[in-house]
Amino acid sequence: MPRFASLLLAGAALAGCSPALDWREFQPEGSGVLASFPCKPDRHSRAVQLEVQAVRMEMLVCDAGDAKFALAFFDVAEPGQVGAALAELQALAAGNIGAQSADAQPAAVPGMTPNPKAMRLRLEGRQPDGTAVQEQAVFFAKGLRVYQAMVLGRRVGAEAADTFLGGLRLPV
């Protein structure tokens, strides 16, 4: 059930910004993460029911260069829920676009808490209207805070995805 991914896409659809990739680094208030966005993101907050627990999810989303860039984060109540939340987010991301398989590799975000479920995925699938779509996303955590960052578009450029996803870091 694509609850989280649908909310992330819905938030992305509401966001708008300049089509130019005008990278800027900032630390969204309360996020604990430094991120470089190619446009000024809008901030949204939603209550989301995940299998592990109900969470209050914060999202930063913008459109630039024919792609949507998004960062979402929330806290879980117990350390044992982190891995399950990471796995659920990955399944939702793949399911939301009907991806049949994922190119997955371990996530490497400076400052993250090591977790075997922390991954970077490359997905290909289709929008509900049948349009082909690509997604690159990273799922990671620091302590009890769980993060998902993604780039979604008809064609996701490696440079833009690497700049956005590779630029994430969690300062001490």
What kind of oligomer do you see? Answer: single chain
* Class computed from helices, strands and strand pairing: alpha+beta
Amino- and carboxy-terminal Cα gap: 35 Å
- Low-confidence residue ranges: 1-19
Q: Describe the biggest sheet?
A: 7 strands, antiparallel
SSE arrangement, N to C = HEEEEEHEEEEH
Which band does the percent of strand residues land in? 35-45%
- Measured as a percent range, the helix fraction is 10-25%
As laid out across the biggest beta sheet, the strand order is 3-4-5-9-8-7-6
Q: Topology of this protein?
A:
Layout (H helix, E strand, L loop, with lengths): L2 H12 L9 E3 L8 E3 L4 E8 L4 E11 L2 E9 L5 H16 L5 E5 L12 E8 L5 E11 L2 E9 L4 H9 L6
Antiparallel strand pairs: 1-2, 3-4, 4-5, 5-9, 6-7, 7-8, 8-9
Helix pairs in contact: 1-2
Description of the structure:
With 172 residues, this protein is an alpha+beta fold. It has three helices and nine strands. The protein has helices at residues 3-14, 81-96, 158-166, and strands at residues 24-26, 35-37, 42-49, 54-64, 67-75, 102-106, 119-126, 132-142, 145-153. The strands form two sheets. The chain has a seven-stranded antiparallel sheet with strand order 3-4-5-9-8-7-6, sandwiched between helices. The protein has a two-stranded antiparallel ribbon with strand order 1-2. A hairpin with a 5-residue loop joins β7 and β8 (132-142). α1 crosses α2 (81-96). The longest helix has 16 residues, at 81-96. It starts with a helix and ends in a 6-residue tail after the last helix. Mean pLDDT is 88; it is low at 1-19.
